[in-house]
Specification:
The chain is about 70% helix and about 0% strand. The protein has about 190 residues and is mainly alpha-helical. It folds into 2 domains: about 1-50, Arc Repressor Mutant, subunit A (Orthogonal Bundle), CATH 1.10.10; about 50-185, Tetracycline Repressor, domain 2. Helix 1 (about 10-25) crosses helix 2, helix 1 (about 10-25) crosses helix 6 (about 90-100) and helix 5 (about 75-90) packs parallel to helix 8 (about 140-160). The N and C termini lie far apart (about 65 Å).
């Protein structure tokens, strides 16, 4: 391997890792392989991530930051759910790693901050929805948030694992999610 100066090795390793995860899952990830792909020494990735867990934690932190940005401007709870599903479709590797705590250093500061930002954005959508519907005192806000998250996360997970291929067909998955959310909001 010839020596190579990389302009942004951290980003190059993250991008290569995301490609590997999207294609073969997190189990296929190897810092040595990522270094080879980036054209650097096998020790170079460790300068940025320390180890495989550090790399996966950085991916999860980046993912939660992207999710927070994607859902922060949601018009309402249904829109937050649609944005959540869109995020999962556009960032499937991040999504897969973010919700697998066994892969991560869950006490990592960057991860904790990014996760809190994402949680706060989603919680804000739930609070606004409950306020708009006049339900502010009738149900437990935490349970309402869990219900909304479960629906969006469950739909996104089933969609990414191709368990909804027949049900969704050629329709836009975001439109299907909107329809489902509307259907469920009609139940008492």
């Amino acid at each position: 391997m010839s020596p190579y100066h990389h302009g942004d090795l951290r980003r190059a390793i993250l991008t290569a890792a995301l490609d590997v995860i999207a294609a073969d899952g997190p189990a296929a990830l190897s810092l040595r392989d990522l270094a080879r792909r980036a054209g650097v020494s096998h020790a170079a990735p460790a300068h940025h991530f320390r180890d495989r867990t550090g790399l996966l934690t950085a991916i999860a932190a980046e993912g939660f930051g992207l999710l927070a940005a994607a859902t922060a401007e949601a018009a309402d709870l249904k829109d937050a759910g649609v944005r959540y599903v869109r995020f999962a479709r556009e960032h499937p590797a991040h999504f897969q790693v973010m919700f697998t705590p066994d892969l991560l250093r869950t006490d990592d500061l960057e991860l904790t901050v990014a996760r809190t930002l994402a949680t706060d954005a989603l919680r804000s959508a739930v609070t606004q929805s409950r306020s708009d519907s006049g339900d502010a005192g009738d149900t437990d806000a935490r349970l309402a948030g869990i219900a909304a998250w479960s629906m969006a996360h469950g739909f996104a997970t089933l969609l990414l694992s191709r368990n909804l291929d027949d049900a969704v067909g050629e329709r836009d998955p975001e439109d299907v999610f909107r329809t489902l959310a509307s259907m469920l909001s009609r139940f008492p």
